[in-house]
Write a structure and sequence with these properties.
By secondary structure, the protein is α+β, with helices and mostly antiparallel strands. Helix content is about 50%, strand content about 10%. Helix 1 crosses helix 4, helix 5 crosses helix 6 and helix 5 crosses helix 8.
Length: about 260
C-alpha cells in the first residue's frame, strides 16, 4: 500500500513537506485532499467539524466552543491529535458547520478560517454544490502511522469521497447495507462503529462507514473480522459479495478482497 494509486505520484510515498498540501484526485476531481504536516494542524482545522457532524453524544444543532470541544475530546480519552487520524465531509456538512458558526458568532481558529477561504475559493460553500473534502496525515507523526497506515487512511477516506460524490456508488452501498447484509451483520457493524464513537442514530453515517471499513480499510491494525465480531470466513463472504456487484469505476478497479477463507469441518 505505500505506492497507493489514490494520490498523485509525488504524494504516493510518505510526505515530508512541512506545509499543508492541497490537491485534487484526478479520477474524481470533486474530491479535494488535504495532506497535513502534523496531526495538531489537522485537528485545529477539522476536529470541530467532526464533533458537529459525526461524533456520538455531541449536539447536531450547534457548534462547540473551544472549551466545549476540549472537554469533549478529553471525555473520549483523546487528544486534539488523536481525535481523528483522517477526516471526510460532504459539501452539505461543511456548509452547515459554517452557517451554524456564523449564527452562534463562534470565533473560528486560524485554521478554520483558512478552510473557509479555501472552500469559498473552490465554490464548495455555494448552495447545492458538490465536492468532498478528505484529509490525511503524514507518515511518521505517530507510532501507529507508518507508510502502510497512511495509505490505508487515504484508501478509506477516498471511498467516503466517492460515496459523497457518486450517487450510483452511494446507492449501491446503501442497498447492500439494507438488503444484502443480514440483521446480524448490520448489528455487528453498528456495534463496531458505535465503539469507534460514530453516531449510531445517523443511518447514512452507518452505511457510509460500513462500506469504508468493510471494503477499503485493508490494514489489519485498523480493521479485521474479530473487531466486528465476525469470523474471517463470514467477513470474506461479505467482502466478496460487495465486490461482485460494485459499480464499475476507479474505486472498484483499486479494490480487492482476500482469498476466501475455507471453513474446516
Amino acid at each position: 500500500m505505500p505506492n497507493s494509486p489514490y494520490a498523485p505520484r509525488s504524494r504516493r510515498k510518505a510526505n515530508t513537506d512541512p506545509h499543508l498540501a492541497i490537491f485534487r484526485f484526478i479520477p474524481n476531481p470533486r474530491i479535494l485532499v488535504l495532506d497535513f504536516p502534523d496531526l495538531h494542524d489537522q485537528g485545529m482545522m477539522l476536529n470541530r467539524v467532526a464533533a458537529l457532524i459525526e461524533k456520538a453524544g455531541l449536539p447536531r444543532d450547534h457548534v462547540l466552543t473551544d472549551a466545549e470541544l476540549s472537554s469533549a475530546i478529553a471525555a473520549h480519552g483523546d487528544t486534539p491529535e488523536t481525535y481523528y487520524y483522517g477526516h471526510d465531509y460532504s459539501a452539505a456538512s461543511r456548509q452547515r458547520f459554517f452557517q451554524l458558526a456564523d449564527q452562534q458568532k463562534i470565533a473560528l481558529t486560524p485554521r478554520e478560517q483558512m478552510l473557509r477561504r479555501l472552500l469559498n475559493q473552490e465554490g464548495y460553500l455555494q448552495p447545492g454544490s458538490l465536492g468532498a473534502l478528505i484529509s490525511i496525515p503524514h507518515a511518521g507523526l505517530d507510532p501507529q502511522i507508518d507508510a502502510t497506515a497512511r495509505a490505508t487512511i487515504l484508501h478509506h477516506e477516498m471511498s467516503h469521497g466517492e460515496y459523497f460524490n457518486n450517487p450510483t456508488y452511494a446507492s449501491y452501498a446503501q442497498s447492500f447495507f439494507k438488503t444484502a447484509m443480514t440483521d446480524a451483520d448490520r448489528a455487528a457493524f453498528i456495534r463496531f462503529l458505535t465503539a469507534q464513537d460514530y453516531d449510531p442514530a445517523d443511518t447514512d453515517l452507518m452505511m457510509n462507514e460500513t462500506q469504508a471499513y468493510l471494503m477499503h480499510t485493508p490494514d489489519p491494525r485498523s480493521f479485521y473480522a474479530a473487531a466486528v465480531g465476525l469470523t474471517d470466513h463470514a467477513l470474506n463472504l461479505l467482502q466478496a459479495g460487495f465486490l461482485l456487484g460494485m459499480p464499475k469505476g476507479w474505486l472498484r478497479d483499486c479494490t480487492s478482497v482476500p482469498s476466501l477463507v475455507t471453513v474446516k469441518n
